[in-house]
Here is the input.
Amino acid sequence: MIVMKFGGTSVESASAIERVASIVRERAERRPVVVVSAMGKTTNKLLAIANAAISGSRASYIAQIHDLRDFHSREARLVVPLADRAELDRTLDDHFQELTELVKGLAVLGELTPRSIDAISSYGERLSSYIVSLAFAHFGMKAVHVDSRRLIVTDRRHTQAAPLYDETYARLAATIPPLAKDRIVVLGGFIGATENGVTTTLGRGGSDFTASIVGAGIRAEEIQIWTDVDGMLTCDPTILVGGHRVKIISFAEAAELAYFGAKVLHPATVIPAVEKNIPVLILNSRRPAVEGTRIVADPVRTANTVKSIACKRKITVVNIHSTRMLMAHGFLKRIFDVFERFETPVDMVATSEVSVSLTIDNSQRLAEICAELRQFSEVSIEESQAIVCLVGENIRYTPGVAARVFRSLESVNIRMISQGASLLNLSFVVAEADLKRAVEALHREFFAQLDPGVFDRNGAADAAA
Ligand code: ASP
Ligand code: MG
Here is the structure.
């Protein structure tokens, strides 16, 4: 068995679903279990509907629900066999009826709880997985739809639920292999339910996580994440085009890249896969012939010190100076307690004798945080910063990496530096305005020479250079 996960853009329309069907059909003998995201931007649209409801714009949420239904119905009818159209219509009616009731309820209450957010956002994957399973029949495959909420058992942390692994794996192992013997199992990603059957979600982008959980639960040979890029690249394509494809990368490197903003993969994805030692492949559903990126358990030997450069924009640096001459003991604890209280994760930290600089990526509660910090320290804020992160298992063994970084960034002001915490990354903070220039310089420095066993050279980039 293999798990094949298709993201929102891979199932955004009838023609996209047709592409998915042909990719799956070609791999039918490997007994694929298919996990899909909501179609296109459906999750965002559902959340917009929920927000319209609580802000009292009845006409607006009703219209948005209609649009969403029309969209699903229009695309689905193109890929559902004639014989199944009546059932399709009935199912869409039921789902949208239920959704409308739910949204009306919210409008009355005027309050959106995490639990109701989950109930509403679950419709995207419930619909997409059902539609894709019918579409497979249209394209000549035997498929069976399973509601993920029966299999993925989670805790009650709505909108960010964590799976209860023992129970989830037990249910997956009992349910999926028998079905997958002669049918293609289709599941929605992202959604689950508590032990009491209340709908939960695994957090935005959570379908990759579902794929990985399912893969681990059924001991799949491989987990394939089908997306709209050729795999992991040596740099973020939204900052610098012309990165090279990384053909093979370790779990640790991939996780590091994901944490630092590479949009290709949800960071949590790799955890269940690592534990069961199941390789994860990143593949492009628009270019299925490209071999993609293979994520494997062990570090890959290569002459290239750095595997990829990841970036995170819209970072805020908070500088905190002790108002005493030297830091009193307990100073760091007091600082972190404040961030803890306002549920704001801290990404990077640098300390000196009298001050601490740290970065946050969610600045929603910054004003409250600063007010508290100012009770015992002086605080200054720098907005519009970016973290640049060089990732590679070899960084720790290679002398002179920092020197090469600083030499190539001579003309860029580096605000903060951190190496060592994870051993396989070197990260630093620059102003967002300097980001592109910094990434260009580093990419030139570290990827002029490429190990052909590990990288696929981007020919277009060479031609342009
Ligand atoms: N549909 C969900 C989201 O947009 C989950 C996913 O696509 O992975 O966040
Ligand atoms: Mg998505």
In short: Residues 7-8, 37, 205 surround magnesium ion (ligand 2) (CB under 6 Å). The chain has a mean pLDDT of 93. The domain at 308-464 is CATH 3.30.2130.10 (VC0802-like).
